[in-house]
Amino acid sequence: MPHNRRTQHPGLAGLLVIAVAFTALQLTAVTGRASPDSKNYLSYALSLSGESRAEAGRRAIAYSCESGQHAPLDTIPWTSRKAAGETEAQCVRRLTDSVAYWTRNGNTSGMTAPFANQRFMAIFEARPGYPLFLVPFVTAFGAVWGLWLAGLLVALAGAVCVLLTLRAAGASRRAGLAGAALYLALPTGTVAMNPLSDGLSLALGTVVVLGCTLLLRERPSDTSGAGAGRGAEAAGTRTRAGRRAEAAGPRVGVGRWADAAGTRTGAALVVGGLALMFLVRYSQALLLAAALAGVLAARAAWSHRKGRRSTPVLRAAGLCALLAALVYAGAHLLSWPMGQDSAQDLLTHHYQRPDRPDPWPEFFARERVFWWAWLKRQATYPFLPVLLALSVLALGKRRSAVLPVAVGAGAAGLLNQAGHPNLDQLLGHRLIVFVWLLPVLAVPLLLDRSRPGGSSPLPAQPKKVGGGQRDGTVRVVQQAGEGA
């Protein structure tokens, strides 16, 4: 028992150190993170907590304008101020006048304060999950500390899910901790801390990724009863897999949970994660489910061509496809804004100009402009391209259940950004943030030694050895009567 406690400490201590270091860094910027959309979510949460719509709007304006005074305009690609130099009082007056204007012009219902026209605010009315999540935090700690603590919890939860995902895929403790650290250090951690729905959506996306990984991995059949109690264990020759397992130490704590979790747990995580994402940011839930379904279906077809077992991959692809259809149907039945509305929002400056009769030619022209500018920026600051290149290297050198899932999550990020080709978002990461999950989940695998012949990172299926049975990890077990 003492030995088990000692072996748990490195992993738990490493995770604790990462969490404490991240928390300490975030204490340097408790405020100053608000974007123009933050006040919409905050006013919704305050309305849910029992505040009147007018009071919720007033408190949201106060938070947004105070945060704007701390936002470093040269490093954060959004700010609550329209121009550098606007004082807090000027910001409050501007937003208060805007609320009064839109109230006079018909925006008199809904949970969010009337910061804009009713059609634009309907986008935030269709995302009740994040404001509902904020209610206990802003009620107990106020707007500033409540939003900060909510972001911290979301960020750390995502990091833990990344660690669990890598361990479930058979990665070492070192690789799992590296993945958690990368999640917090890269833009995924920054987006998670921002007072917007993107962070909670990302954390729930990591839950879906964990579930898909559990569905895809190959689990050894239970052979605990084969020969158990029928003879004494003999000191057999250890396999290379056994030596690696012993060098890594016994899998306890997180590793033990990752080993024990099965396909039912995986399916529950996928369904539950996407169901909650539907309430938080349904468009991202739809894109994540569709991207995972497409990538996993392609993976199943490739496995079938290679003569490999593709049933688990097909089942996961089918589940994601079914959930994508349900998300789309649910949003349609609730009359939530869809793709056409998003295109009109972009082209009419939040519906303040007349709708385009046919928005798609102009929308695709914006796509070309945006992605050309994005590629030029990546060439100038090639941090993401380098990480993606390392991810491709991991794809080529490792066989792991997490890799196709990571590719699907990354594709969801590209699709989400493609739905919003706004040059104002060129310097930001929140719309494309899911693409960073690919290096977060793939690059840490390079820390582990590659298996001979690209074998699965999970324990091998039991094989017969002479009259006994090898368990694929540690030793040869002799049946009763052998060597007598």
Describe this structure in words.
- The chain has 484 residues and is mainly alpha-helical.
- Helices cover 63% and strands 2% of the residues.
- A three-stranded antiparallel β-sheet has the order 1-2-3, with no helix packed on it.
- A hairpin with a 5-residue loop joins strand 2 and strand 3.
- Helix 1 (2-26) packs parallel to helix 7 (173-185) and helix 6 (129-168) packs across helix 11.
Task: Give the topology, please.
Elements: H1 2-26, H2 38-48, H3 53-68, H4 88-104, H5 118-125, H6 129-168, H7 173-185, H8 187-193, H9 197-216, H10 240-248, H11 254-260, H12 263-305, H13 311-333, H14 339-347, H15 360-380, H16 383-397, H17 402-418, H18 437-442, E1 463-465, E2 468-470, E3 476-477
Antiparallel strand pairs: 1-2, 2-3
Helix pairs in contact: 1-7, 2-3, 2-6, 3-4, 6-7, 6-8, 6-9, 6-11, 7-8, 8-9, 9-12, 9-17, 12-13, 12-17
